[in-house]
Amino acid sequence: MPQITEIFFDCDNTLVLSEELAFEACADLTNEILEKRGISDRYTGDQLIQDFVGQNFRGMMISLQAKYNFDMSKEELEGFVKKEEDKVIAKLVEKAQPCVGATEELEKLAKSNKYHLAVVSSSALRRVQASIKKVGQDKFFEENMVFSAATSLPKPTSKPDPAIYNYALEVCKKKPEETVTIEDSKSGALSAIRAGIHVIGYVGSYPGDDKKIEMTKALTDLGARVIMKDWSEFQDCLAQIEQLEDE
């Protein structure tokens, strides 16, 4: 059986605690779009996380149009995508923190030199790079080993579409069965599973035990092979997947 040689990492709320900051910025723009169309509903950052976690802003806007039955021109959408990216990056550069324990595990992996490492995110490339740089994780990834569904592909997409994982596998010259990814959202896990990649579901960034239990079930039901509650469990989770590969 193939050995694990590649580890992919989702970024938002997996490596860097960025979702809450990003959704704060998104809520302002989402409400501006709704107001412009005479729709009375308004979102807070938390409500957006409930509805759209794991999607990038472009994906969220497509879902929003479907939910409220309106159309947005390509030009208007791209204008808002750019505006959102700038707002979010400003917040991240000011306030982003690493997920507890993530940097320490990256350090161990870099020292072991056993695996190739890459970041595979739905978010815009500038945003992912700003996030990992702010928390000092950029040094663990070669410059061209940060992949973005919003930026890296010829046609922008968002997880759960597997396109970004398929692209990352192609660039890294890896097979799905020799690859593990760490994902915290349903859309992220589904994207990797559709690409045939082993998933470690990470629930450590979710607030409260109830949400962690709910997400453990959701990620397991989708097909995550192992669930990780804290980054300190990472080596054990990886060993479990490697054992599955040996059987």
UniProtKB/TrEMBL annotation:
The name this protein goes by in its record: HAD-like domain-containing protein
Keywords: Carbohydrate metabolism, Magnesium, Metal-binding
Native species: Aspergillus avenaceus
CDD domains referenced in this protein's UniProt entry, alphabetically: HAD_BPGM-like
Cofactor(s) demanded: Mg(2+)
NCBIfam families tied to this protein: HAD-SF-IA-v3
UniProt GO molecular function: metal ion binding; phosphatase activity
Lineage: Eukaryota, Fungi, Dikarya, Ascomycota, Pezizomycotina
SUPFAM superfamilies given in the database record: HAD-like
